[in-house]
Amino acid sequence: MELGLKHRVALVTGGARGLGRAICLGLADEGARVAVNCVRSDPAALLGEIRQRSGAPAIAVRGDVSRAADVRAIFDEVERGLGPLEILINNAGTWPRALVRDMSEDEWERTLAVNLTAAFLTCREAVRRWSAAGRVGRIVNVTSQAAYHGTTTGHAHYAAAKAGLANFTISLARELAPQGIRVNAVAPGFMDTDMASEAWRQNQARYLARIPLGRIGDPAEVASAVLFLASERASYITGATLHVNGGMEMR
């Protein structure tokens, strides 16, 4: 199926590892020009794989997307290196563990900053630039099943942030629909990533009991949903959330 992503310029926040890495590879395989945002991770191997697999242009853009100044610099670098941004994928996230009774204010604020405020800042920057230039774009936010189920394993701050992101997606989609800018979300379930590996090892039976399909998800399965929502095939979809979760959430 032709997705119409060839030569499109896409920015993936938190793109060097896990779900972000799979999304970057999927976009590149479709011929998109990919900007891989990261803070500490080394994206060199990913950039090499992209070029080897697809030959599509790809660059690394370092910066903390929870800081407005960094976000502006990231967008400037994307435009210099690849051209005007057309697709924004908000994937950056952090998943620290702390029960509410033990949680510090700093832990709470940092988790919301990375998982929610960062998406606000990147969306705001994208919309400002698209509006000023009379262009349209597509935004896909990566939320979580925790946004709908909450958590009992010490991730209340994460769940709260992701619930906020899910609702922010709907509100922004309503706001931007008259301009032709589409905003959607993907809500992964439990995924086979480095971030979740320790929790999966310790609680595998418990998690499997909650997944009707009976297995952990592959990051490429989330990437496929993200690519669809960012593509021309989803031209009449906005304000939606695709649940990629093995049946953990059925609506």
Summarize the structure.
This protein has helices at residues 18-29, 44-53, 68-81, 105-133, 146-149, 156-176, 197-209, 219-230, and strands at residues 9-12, 33-38, 58-62, 87-90, 138-142, 182-188, 241-244. The protein is α/β, with parallel strands linked by helices and 251 residues long.
Question: Could you explain how this protein is built, in words?
Answer:
- This protein is of the alpha/beta class and 251 residues long.
- It is 46% helix and 14% strand.
- It is built from eight helices and seven strands, in the order E-H-E-H-E-H-E-H-E-H-H-E-H-H-E.
- A seven-stranded parallel β-sheet has the order 3-2-1-4-5-6-7, sandwiched between helices.
- Helix 2 (44-53) links the parallel strand 2 (33-38) and strand 3.
- Helix 1 (18-29) runs parallel beside helix 2 (44-53), helix 1 (18-29) packs across helix 8 and helix 3 (68-81) crosses helix 4.
- It is globular.
- How many runs of DSSP E, i.e. beta strands? 7
How big is the Rg?
17 Å
Largest sheet: 7 strands, parallel
CATH homologous superfamily annotation: NAD(P)-binding Rossmann-like Domain
What's the pLDDT, averaged over the residues?
A: 93
Global morphology: globular
* Overall SS class: alpha/beta
Q: Distance between termini?
A: 26 Å
Number of helices, where a helix is a run of at least 4 consecutive DSSP H or I residues: 8
String of helices and strands: EHEHEHEHEHHEHHE
